């Protein structure tokens, strides 16, 4: 079977079967999204408002937290008819989710699975998703993938660092990835030797698309440039990057080294698949499912064209609702329309989600998430900041909901030293409140060693 036929078989038969067996409705949803994206902005707005009304009514009737919240604010579901009416409802924050985990679950909700976040864009958080939410996110990502003339079943290299993916490499997942022609490369420990091996895998595999952290592909690009390794002749059609802020210099290097465009994606496990870049450059919001507000310092919604915090309402989260969820990221809703012809609104000037590379004692360069996940595992930690002062000294600032015992400190210190080196001094500092940057953004990982290597 030739490559194109194989891709069609995966996209039209194997992947739909896979989704059906998992109880996902992503195939039908993707087909709906591929139709609705060509409607005008007003028509998409009508679709969203109708869905919003149904969503709020369902949440009010089944989710204890939101019934109490709306009643306390003298609101009825009928008061929320449009996206503009959402401003009547108080914000949802990570702290509220942590304090109301049980009350945020819909009564009788089925198939809820626990997820974790708290990487580069937020403090540690546990939340729950069900098949409805996952199906909608898969469909939105699938639609955006196809914008670039690639599809599920085309060869793909994934550079990722989440333990959910890296620890799930059992036989079934390995078989699935082999069938779908997707190969995973871990993004934690990046030495010159491992980068060289990654490049060899990419050269041998000849993927049609790349997916993962922009910082990793930028680092691979730096190595390729330094050693005069050509990667511009592999037939890669697009590099999808996500989970970090994409910097201009990273885009330029990735596009130059791999000879393909970079497609930026914005979202997260908690907030969902929010926006994705199309070949014409527009960062399209998944507006059929997600309402994005931009709010100012006082929490007042701002008009298109003005910069503020990104607040998200995901309307496929009736089992564990995300309504007016504060992401902590800064962005702007564009006043422009995209030349591609899609009526989906555009997100512009996205900031935040920055993680540095950390440099170990032996010179190993690793993704900041390698340390973030260590702290994220400790449920008593409310917030944290990692500062690598020097190759021999790393500070860990911690906010906690309870007293941090010496056992916890020792466990954190031991795991950090496993990554950075046994002789490294790990200083753990417990604070009542960890302040953000002067910009208002929070930088969870900062390496002065890494900055000096730029």
Assembly form of the protein = single chain
Low-confidence segments: none
- The CATH topology assignment of the largest domain is Rossmann fold
The whole-angstrom Rg is 22 Å
Query: Percent range for helical residues?
Result: 25-40%
Beta-strand residue percentage: 15-25%
CATH class group of the largest domain: Alpha Beta
User: Helix count, per DSSP?
Assistant: 14
As for the number of domains, it is 3
Count of strand segments? 20
Main β-sheet: number of strands, strand sense, barrel status? 7 strands, mixed
Quote the average pLDDT.
89
Overall shape: it is globular
Helix/strand class? alpha/beta
Strands of the widest sheet, in order across it, are 4-3-6-7-8-9-10
Q: Any idea what the CATH architecture of the largest domain is?
A: 3-Layer(aba) Sandwich
CATH-wise, what's the superfamily of the largest domain? ANL, N-terminal domain
**What's the N-to-C terminus distance?**
46 Å
What can you see in these coordinates?
The protein has three domains: 19-135 and 268-330, Rossmann fold; 149-260, 3-Layer(aba) Sandwich (Rossmann fold), CATH 3.40.50.980; 357-452, GMP Synthetase, Chain A, domain 3, CATH 3.30.300. It is 36% helix and 24% strand. The protein has 14 helices and 20 strands. The longest helix has 22 residues, at 41-62. The chain is globular, with a radius of gyration of 22 Å.
């Amino acid at each position: 079977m030739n490559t194109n036929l194989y891709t069609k078989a995966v996209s039209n038969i194997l992947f739909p079967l896979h989704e059906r067996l998992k109880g996902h409705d992503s195939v039908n949803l993707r087909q709906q999204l591929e139709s609705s994206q060509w409607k005008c902005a007003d028509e998409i707005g009508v679709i969203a408002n109708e869905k919003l009304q149904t969503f709020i009514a369902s949440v009010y009737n089944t989710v204890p937290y939101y019934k109490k919240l709306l009643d306390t604010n003298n609101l009825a579901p009928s008061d929320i008819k449009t996206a503009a009416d959402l401003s009547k409802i108080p914000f949802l924050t990570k702290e509220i989710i942590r304090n109301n985990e049980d009350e945020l679950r819909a009564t009788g909700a089925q198939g809820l699975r626990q997820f974790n976040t708290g990487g580069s864009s937020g403090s540690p958080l546990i939340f729950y998703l069900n098949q409805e939410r996952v199906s909608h996110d898969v469909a939105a990502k699938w639609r955006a993938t196809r914008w670039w003339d690639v599809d599920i079943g085309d060869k793909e290299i994934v550079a990722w660092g989440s333990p959910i993916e890296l620890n799930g490499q059992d036989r079934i997942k390995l078989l699935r990835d082999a069938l779908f022609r997707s190969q995973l490369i871990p993004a934690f420990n990046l030495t010159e030797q491992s980068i060289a091996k990654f490049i060899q895998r990419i050269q041998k595999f000849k993927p049609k698309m790349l997916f993962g952290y922009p910082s990793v592909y930028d680092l691979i690009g730096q190595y390729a440039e330094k050693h005069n390794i050509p990667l511009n002749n592999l037939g890669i059609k697009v590099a999808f990057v996500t989970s970090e802020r994409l910097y201009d210099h990273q885009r330029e290097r990735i596009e130059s080294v791999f000879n393909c465009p970079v497609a930026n994606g914005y979202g997260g496990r908690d907030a969902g698949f929010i926006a994705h870049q199309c070949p014409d450059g527009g960062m399209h919001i998944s507006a059929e499912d997600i309402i994005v507000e931009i709010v100012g310092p006082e929490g007042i919604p701002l008009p298109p064209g003005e910069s503020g915090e990104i607040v998200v309402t995901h309307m496929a989260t009736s089992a564990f609702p995300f309504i007016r969820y504060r992401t902590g990221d800064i962005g702007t809703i564009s006043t422009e329309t995209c030349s591609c012809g899609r009526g989906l609104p555009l997100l512009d000037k996205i900031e935040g989600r920055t993680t540095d590379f950390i440099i170990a004692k032996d010179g190993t360069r690793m993704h900041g998430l390698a340390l973030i996940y260590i702290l994220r595992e400790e449920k008593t930690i409310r917030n944290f900041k990692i500062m690598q002062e020097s190759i021999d000294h790393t500070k860990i600032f911690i906010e906690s909901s309870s007293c941090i015992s010496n056992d916890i400190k020792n466990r954190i210190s031991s795991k950090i030293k496993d990554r950075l080196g046994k002789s490294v001094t790990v200083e753990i500092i417990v604070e009542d409140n960890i302040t953000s940057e002067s910009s208002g953004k929070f930088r969870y990982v900062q390496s002065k060693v890494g900055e000096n290597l730029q």
